[in-house]
Prior knowledge:
This protein is α+β, with helices and mostly antiparallel strands and about 180 residues long. It has 2 domains: about 5-60, no CATH class; about 80-180. The protein has 3 helices and 7 strands; from the N terminus they run H-H-E-E-E-E-E-E-E-H. Strands 1-2-3-7-6-5-4 form a 7-stranded antiparallel beta sheet, with helices on one face.
Amino acid sequence: xxxxxxxxxxxxxxxxxxxxxxxxxxxxxxxxxxxxxxxxxxxxxxxxxxxxxxxxxxxxxxxxxxxxxxxxxxxxxxxxxxxxxxxxxxxxxxxxxxxxxxxxxxxxxxxxxxxxxxxxxxxxxxxxxxxxxxxxxxxxxxxxxxxxxxxxxxxxxxxxxxxxxxxxxxxxxxxxxxxxxx
Length: 182
């Protein structure tokens, strides 16, 4: 086939395909009551159009509360991020799951770690506890010192338990810093 004829056929095929795809949005459409074909359901013969479930789109998601933020951060004028690692110890690009973030406080140089650890129970106030104790971001919190000498404060908000810890700061100072998390 001559070269000139090949170029003509290529140009014609390109023009036809462009015209086809450009015209698709203008094709007439009929409204479909239930866009799922009957073969999608295993019990298609039992379902009639009157009792099929309606397909709810984005409005279903709009009614849900926003997902809780697993990675709280301190303001830039208060602290700088020193290290960020995944809960499983991976570093680098952090997946969407929670991470452990270590900050260096600008004023004092103290290191503070913030995380949303997995596999721990929610922090709840015991009914017999007369003293409300520590509060962080408006939620009841508990404080303890772990075997490494780090002060650890845990609290639960919006169904997520968070933890802030430091080897050099005491519980009241850590609670102050935790209140500044966003």
